[in-house]
Design goal:
single chain; alpha/beta; N-(1-d-carboxylethyl)-l-norvaline Dehydrogenase, domain 2; 2 domains; 8-stranded mixed beta sheet; about 55% helix; elongated
Length: about 290
């Protein structure tokens, strides 16, 4: 492969649901794409579109100036990359880690990369595969600023909503886990809400539409809570912790009336009760952070 091709080319390792889409989008954007996956058959559609299938990982990372790896977790990623031969082949090149993990995982990956002379960025995709490549697709990236500048065009091709979260290698993972905490714990609440709708004969799709419509207001509330925690200011609540806790009693009573599972409101009632027992009932809901600290 020529130097020019290497400069305009990208290697994608991992062709699961997300990795395959990353490679397809890069092809759409005019990049020369080399791919590698443990199951070679998963590359067929990409090869048919012009992607090159590497025979092994060393050949894959040697084919391009930039390698993106996107697999289930860092343990799998490290199992693929952390060999002497792959490290040597990646030396001097840019490695963008888009697998899911913790800040500690990212720091471990950065230390290994630095020891091999590899330029390293850690990232997190905050989107489903079908959302990749859009103007508003968010990807969080962290690591050396010069490394970010080296990979920014490729990353923006994948995500118009790209955000650089700073030089700390674990920053992108921390932001990702913060978002996932809010998303998936909130999604469990959505499931309970769906059971309320089902047992009241209300179409559940209307629930999703309503939440989408009120999301700007919810976002404003979340901003206020985060600011209160940041400033450690829980006085003068618009809605006190006690008022919020009483909602759990309503949800538990409604669950009994309609014969639905009440595990989630009972669990959260227990947390709220700890806040009330600690004397935070007259403070902002955000005062619950003091229970968790």
């Amino acid at each position: 492969m020529t130097t020019t091709t290497q400069q305009t080319g990208v290697t994608v390792i991992g062709l699961g649901d997300m990795g395959s889409v990353l490679a397809h989008v890069l092809l759409d954007k005019g990049y020369t794409v080399t791919v590698w996956n443990r199951r070679r058959d998963k590359a067929a559609a990409l090869v048919a579109r012009g992607a090159m299938l590497a025979t092994d990982v060393v050949a894959a990372v040697g084919a391009s100036a930039v390698t993106i790896i996107c697999v289930t977790d860092y343990a799998i990623s490290h199992g693929i990359l952390h060999t002497a031969a792959v490290g040597a082949a990646l030396s001097g090149r840019l490695l963008i880690e888009l697998s899911t993990g913790t800040p500690a995982d990212a720091r471990h990956g950065e230390r290994w990369a630095a020891a091999q002379g590899i330029v390293y960025l850690d990232g997190a995709i905050l989107a489903t595969p079908r959302q990749v490549g859009r103007a508003d697709t968010p990807i969080f990236v962290s690591g050396d600023r010069a490394a970010y500048e080296r990979g920014v065009d490729i990353l923006q091709a994948l995500a118009g909503g790209l955000q650089y979260m700073g030089e700390a290698p674990g920053a992108a993972a921390a932001w990702d886990l913060g978002f996932l905490s809010y998303l998936f714990m909130g999604a469990l609440g959505l499931l309970h809400a769906a059971r309320i709708f089902e047992t009241e004969g209300i179409p559940v799709d209307g629930l999703g539409n309503m939440i989408a419509q009120v999301s700007p207001g919810i976002g404003e509330m979340i901003q206020g809570m985060a600011l209160a925690i940041h400033q450690n200011d829980f006085e003068q609540p618009e809605s006190s912790l006690l008022i919020c806790a009483l909602t759990m009693d309503l949800l538990i009573r409604q669950a009994a009336e309609n014969g639905i599972n009440d595990e989630m409101p009972r669990f959260f009632k227990g947390l709220y009760q700890r806040g009330l027992d600690a004397g935070y009932g007259g403070e902002k809901f955000a005062a619950m952070i003091k229970v968790l600290r």
